[in-house]
């Protein structure tokens, strides 16, 4: 799912038909009706997911629950429209029993009272579910808000550093590169520069790259500096960690020649960086596994590299110093993804939980993949299906256990923009301390003052 651009969408008033056929209604024949809602529709948006629900989930669940009729409530609209519809349904205590939502909406929905912790809805069976042991604690975080589990994560992704092995060899750098600090990245960049590589390091910066700046650059670096943008009910302001992140940007874009400042300001700078990496002009690039499977993919990629598997290396993002990352980690990452939640107003909440748990079982997860090599939230499934792609297996095995997520709060997109503006200022020549102070001032205006900001 794409993150919506207007955070006030939950509060928006819209003329929409509220669907109340879910919530575990009785069909009149003695059977129970459960409903699944998702922003997918056969022949349209997320068609494969809609087909899976209709052709596998529903018939397979009904086989073992003969008194239950499951209906699918498809949508094929812009994510923001879908979010508004779901919010209005839940506000009216209507809607489907099992609902697909973007993980970034969880906190917002929870704070509005639209969703409740899974155990509050599904009862003791939630904690006894076998699937929890197959989902890494860090991945469970996609559906967690304020320490409580609100949803089950679907597939997810991870951020790493990609590097060009050919350029590394030219610079005298190892074929298998495993940086243990930010200084290791800078040192590698300097060797690449000496070897004549046009752009030694590409870390997304500025406002033109939008959320890619925040997710591929700022937030992983912030995690590496031992901090998250929102923790313990407070937003992170001009802390030492934020100054460290901006200082790292300054090392790359402040005249060192390690990065290309102009590229960060171009409207299609991210796409151009993809093309330049594929052309052997960028040595190190921070991106999600999307870059591997959809950008430089040899056959159908945006910027295909026929020799991808031989030339493109990948490695975990190091903390600023060993052990200096969040949770005392040596390496860090950021992830996104969708979750499924329970409608707290379901008339049959325990059966709704059974349906939700079934949709996240190993059998269901493998069925949804339909033979495709993609990262699921379950380690048992990943161990089986990712053997054909070492990079995605690396993400599942090495990166996801160290990952973190954006806060699912309504003001986050505006905070993200303020972070992007801070990096843009550094790229344009402003000092890290000045950019951090300006960010602090903007943040106070966004989140209701200094009382809601921590260090």
From TrEMBL:
It comes from the Bacteria. InterPro entries: Bact_solute-bd_prot1 (IPR050490), SBP (IPR006059). Gene3D superfamilies: Periplasmic binding protein-like II. PROSITE patterns: PROKAR_LIPOPROTEIN. Pfam families: SBP_bac_1 (PF01547). This is Extracellular solute-binding protein. It comes from Nonomuraea turkmeniaca.
